[in-house]
C-alpha cells in the first residue's frame, strides 16, 4: 500500500497548485500507466504473501508448461535439465509433447521419476509439412498442448518452454499472475543476442529483436505467457504452420494489442530466460555396435543414448 501512496504523492507534485500545467498530457499519461502497473504489482505481492503465510501452494495459480520435443540423443539430457528447474517450481503441470509416431518409454519412465505432474502426448508433425526444407518445428506439439488445455483446464497460465532453453525459477514467479498476456526479455537469441519489448517509464515503445520481418509481435517463444482463462475465451487461437511467424501468428490470433501486455521482469530490465542450444552430438560410434557387446550393459546404454549404426551407402 505504501507504493500506491508514493505514486499519489508524485502525481500531486507533478500537478502543481495550478492543475496539470506543470506536467502536461504526456506526464499524466505516464503516471496513469505507472499507477496501473504498480497496482498490478501490489495485487500480485499480496497474493504471494497470503500463500507464503498459509504455506499452501495449492492456492497458487497453476502454470501449464508446454514443452515440444523430438527423439534425438540429446532429448533426455535436455529434458533432464529443464526438469531440474521445474522440480523447484510449485503448482506446475508439465505437458511434454513428443514429435514421434511411437511412445518413447525411456522418456515416459523419466517423466514418472521426476514426480512432476505431467501428461505425455504423442504429437507428430503433419506429413504435409515434414518434407519441407524449412519445417514449422514444434507447431503441432504446441497446438496439441493447447487443445489439451481446452479440455482439461479452466484457469491458470500457459507457457511454451522449449527443451533446450535455460530458465531461472524467478521467471515462473513473474508469469504466475498473468491476467491476459505477459512478456519479458529473452537473452542469447537472434543475431542481436536479445529479444524484448522496448519499455520506457512503464510505457511500451516498440520491439527489439534481431529479425522484425514484418511481424506485429516480433518476440521469441520463451518471452511470453498467456492466461488460460483468456486463451479459452478465444477458441480459434492457434499457432500457424509458418516458420518464423509462429509466435506472431499465435499472438495475433489472440486479438491483443501492445496495450494488453503486462511487462514483467521489472519492466523488462531483468533476464530470466536464455535461448541456449546444446551442441549436436558429433559422435559416430562404430565399436559400440559390435556383436561382442550384445547381452551386456553396453547394448542397454547404446539404446538409452539412441545411437544408431551408420547407414551403408
TrEMBL record:
Biological-process GO terms, alphabetical: carbohydrate metabolic process; chondroitin sulfate proteoglycan biosynthetic process
Keyword Transmembrane in record: yes
Leading EC class: transferase
GO cellular component: Golgi membrane
UniProt membrane topology term: Single-pass type II membrane protein
Active site positions: 247
Protein name: Galactosylgalactosylxylosylprotein 3-beta-glucuronosyltransferase
Organism name: Petrolisthes cinctipes (Flat porcelain crab)
Lineage start: Eukaryota, Metazoa, Ecdysozoa, Arthropoda, Crustacea
